[in-house]
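Go through the following before class.
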Amino acid sequence: MIKSPRSYWEPLWSKGRYYRQLAPAETALLAQHLGPGNGRPALDIGSGDGALARHLHHQLSYRTTGIDCAPSAVALAASQDTTSGPNPTWRCADITADGFNALPDLAYAAITCRLVYRWMDDKPAFLDRMRQLLAPGGCFWVVTEIEGRREDSNGLERLGITGAEAEILTAGWSIVRIADLDVLRCYALRP
């Protein structure tokens, strides 16, 4: 799909492109499936402007790290930290290529991947990395579009993951919970 994630995403973020914002229905599902963080570590992959990482950190009380491969996205996320107390930690990293030592914690109680999974070239390898990073009893939260759900004539109806890619995503987890939000599907996956 993308030869170099950084070379693809950096120009988009540096030009001020924004993506779908968090909606109340989605944050309600997050709270329901992830529960309170109580200071446990959370990792937001492809954090973009940082809205999800800040929500995990401030509303759900996780100690959150947001990572993105685009330096402009990381800078934007950090610039939006407005509270005087502790804020999420921001890292510029490519979770598919960089080692785990780019991350501040060895394991995470919650890992979120919002609107990013479809861009992973090697989905099985990515999922193996997530299983390695997820703490026992943790939750991997994935939000993605499902192919064919958009009724759009500009080619956007093919934007989501296929049924086969959804099967790859859900295989090998002991607990799989699914919730639909318009064109999005939310997956709460537990080992």
